[in-house]
Recover the amino acids of this structure.
């Protein structure tokens, strides 16, 4: 067998023999590899963006009182966890969970009736009580360093101004835009409304708000922050989970916000968890309906879930939990669907490139039959010849693949520079389009390995045919 | 008592048939011959007489349909394809009508190539290739590629390549056919000189009378049969 360096050198020179054909093949491999890596980077970004969005909304794991997940929708507060603080400490101090943990927080979900004192308009609502600063940390969970939508200028109407909630503002709350419309929160003040352009950094209509003047509404609630006593407020009424007379309280409106779905926008009031707990369980310690466990990495979800299960079993806790992708199965369905599309495109490109390399290698071998006969006459074995021709195909894939990686890396930078923004499904703000090529190098590896495998597979048959050729027959082509 | 100088090649009843559609072509019919060590043998005959086929059989490039072939004490008709490849690499050299140099390699690299196949250490193969190129008068052309050399120079490189492994036998198929007569004579003179120096046997297939006239042993083929051997 010929030493490999000699083969390598010869293979490289043979590739350079018909420069135009080899360049066209390498370009095709490079574009396919680069395109595949960029598409993979886009898919990766989509998966991670949706993962961050889902985890940002639900955490990685939610712990409930047993039965809550099946039967709690009608009266969530009836399934409240009364010893939240103790459970939180117990989980935080667990040696298995603690290193994987980012944050544990609680939330309380309840239903009730809301009335606007100004307009006397009423509606049912879904209340969500959270710890404001912890909730903010959960919603901003970004381990993949994806562009933060709140920093995009086009999202300024949504993210600028006063925060939705504040730790110090126990009675403050935010109201969904749809619910605000129902409660006619903007109606009385409309005549006095300032020009939207003067009160907001962007004049572009915000998305999915049904034409409601969000800038104005934000300005209204924000401006009145400086004037104590004039904050718009809402009266809310809830039936205590244990029965009896309804409890009532007021919240001051800090902000009107769009929500991910119309149902949420038409119903959600978000408020401080302590205010919500006091409303539902007056005079009692803090209650929550769900303990949210946020991890440093989604990869640890299963390990932490298993540990939680063993804690629940060993300490006979009346609790259950759900993983983030169980709470929102959309993620798995979406990844499955886009994954299939990616696989389809991947296979199509591989097949196309394989045919191209096959054609190149076949032509290349046909032109060198005399040379192949000579090599065999000199004593190169069939296997040695097969390996030599395979090496040429491999080098085509290698060079094309490396050029493809460069194209993908360049594409990543270009997409970043172009600053393309759009509104993905199930969110209400603009998101910057990214392709995670350099930040998720697995897509580069996939595309590169695809190029190599493709070039090897498509070279195998022409190389095998050449190696099986009769020497005398090959020499006739000299 | 064994023969003190056994023949280099012994062929017995060597036949080669080709199938062309429904027709069977008998390219070589029951040829028996022996070729002496260090001899300058010429196979001649008209076109289609089977001389190239016989040369291919003697060079282990083709397998006989029947008969036996013994080269340098080895029964090559019984060897596997892989063993035949190794045999050719070690024991045989080839010179072709169209030179058949590898176009992407320089003269020096072309001559080194058989030694790479035989895993001769790089330093040694470089020295031997340089010596061979010097001996064929191409010491000044070692880095030239085949496209940068004349036909005569290319054939000299091919001769150097065929002899660099010090084979027992060099087989040449019409080595002067693509050369002008003066260059052809020079090439023949060079082969004679190298045969004298190395003791390598040459078997040449040709219908060039100039080449045939220089034979020490002549094999005449007609219609696939041996007409004369002497």
């Amino acid at each position: 067998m010929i030493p490999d360096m000699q083969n390598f050198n010869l293979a490289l020179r043979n590739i350079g023999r018909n420069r135009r054909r080899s360049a066209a093949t390498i370009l095709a491999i490079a574009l396919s590899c680069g395109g595949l890596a960029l598409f993979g980077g886009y898919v990766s970004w989509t998966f991670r963006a949706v993962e961050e969005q889902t985890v940002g909304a639900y955490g990685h794991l939610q712990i409930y009182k047993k039965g809550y997940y099946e039967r709690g929708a009608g009266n969530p507060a009836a399934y409240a966890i009364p010893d939240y603080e103790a459970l939180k400490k117990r989980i935080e101090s667990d040696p298995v969970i603690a290193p994987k943990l980012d944050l544990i927080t609680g939330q309380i979900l309840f239903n009730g009736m809301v009335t606007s004192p100004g307009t006397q308009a009423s509606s049912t609502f879904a209340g969500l009580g959270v710890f404001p600063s912890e909730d903010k940390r959960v919603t901003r969970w970004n381990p993949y360093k994806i562009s933060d939508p709140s920093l995009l200028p086009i999202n300024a109407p949504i993210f600028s101004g006063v925060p939705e909630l504040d730790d110090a503002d126990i009675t403050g709350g935010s109201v969904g835009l749809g619910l605000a419309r129902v409660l006619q929160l903007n109606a009385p003040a409309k005549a006095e409304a300032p020009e939207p352009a003067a009160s907001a950094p962007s004049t572009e209509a915000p998305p999915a708000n049904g034409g409601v003047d969000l800038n104005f509404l934000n300005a209204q609630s924000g401006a009145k922050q400086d004037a104590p006593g004039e904050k718009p407020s809402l009266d809310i009424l809830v039936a205590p989970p244990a029965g009896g007379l309804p409890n009532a309280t007021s919240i001051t409106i800090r902000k009107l916000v769009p929500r991910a779905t119309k149902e949420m926008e038409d119903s959600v009031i978000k408020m401080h968890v302590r205010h919500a707990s006091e409303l539902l369980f007056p005079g009692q310690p803090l209650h929550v309906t769900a303990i949210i466990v946020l991890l440093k990495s989604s990869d640890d979800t299963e390990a932490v879930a298993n540990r939680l299960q063993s804690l629940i079993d060993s300490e006979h806790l009346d609790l259950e939990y759900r993983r983030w992708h169980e709470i929102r199965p959309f993620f798995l369905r979406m990844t499955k669907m886009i994954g299939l599309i990616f696989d389809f495109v991947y296979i199509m490109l591989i097949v196309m490139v394989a045919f191209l390399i096959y054609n190149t290698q076949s032509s290349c071998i046909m032109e060198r039959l005399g040379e192949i006969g000579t090599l065999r006459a000199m004593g190169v074995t069939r296997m040695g010849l097969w390996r030599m021709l395979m090496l040429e195909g491999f080098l085509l894939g290698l060079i094309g693949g490396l050029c493809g990686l460069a194209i993908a890396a360049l594409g990543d930078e270009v997409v970043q520079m172009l600053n393309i923004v759009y509104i993905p499904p199930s969110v209400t703000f603009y998101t910057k389009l990214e392709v995670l090529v350099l930040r998720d190098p697995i897509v580069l590896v996939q595309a590169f390995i695809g190029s190599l495998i493709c070039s090897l597979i498509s070279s195998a048959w022409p190389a095998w045919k050449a190696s099986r050729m009769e020497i005398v027959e090959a020499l006739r082509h000299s | 008592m064994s023969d003190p100088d056994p023949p280099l090649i012994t062929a017995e009843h060597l036949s080669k048939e080709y199938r062309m559609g429904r027709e069977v072509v008998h390219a070589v019919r029951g040829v028996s011959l022996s070729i002496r060590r260090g001899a300058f043998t010429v196979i001649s005959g008209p076109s289609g007489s089977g001389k190239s086929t016989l040369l291919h059989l003697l060079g282990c490039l083709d397998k006989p349909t029947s008969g036996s072939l013994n080269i340098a004490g080895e029964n090559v008709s019984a060897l596997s394809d892989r063993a035949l490849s190794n045999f050719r690499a070690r024991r045989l050299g080839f010179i072709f009508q169209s030179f058949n140099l590898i176009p992407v390699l320089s003269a020096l690299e072309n001559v080194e190539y058989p030694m790479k196949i035989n895993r001769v250490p790089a330093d040694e193969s470089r020295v031997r290739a340089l010596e061979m190129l010097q001996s064929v008068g191409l010491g000044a052309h070692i880095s030239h590629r085949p496209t940068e050399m004349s036909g005569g120079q290319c054939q000299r490189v091919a001769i150097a390549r065929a002899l660099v492994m010090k084979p027992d036998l060099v087989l040449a198929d019409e080595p002067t056919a693509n050369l002008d007569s003066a260059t052809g004579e020079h090439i023949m003179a060079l082969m004679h000189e190298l045969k004298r120096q190395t003791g390598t046997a040459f078997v040449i297939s040709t219908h060039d009378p100039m080449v045939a006239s220089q034979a020490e042993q002549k094999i005449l083929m007609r219609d696939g049969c041996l007409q004369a051997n002497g």
Q: What stands out?
A: Residues 38-63+81-229 of chain B form a domain with the Rossmann fold fold (CATH 3.40.50.300). DSSP finds seven helices and ten strands in chain B. Chain B has a mean pLDDT of 91.
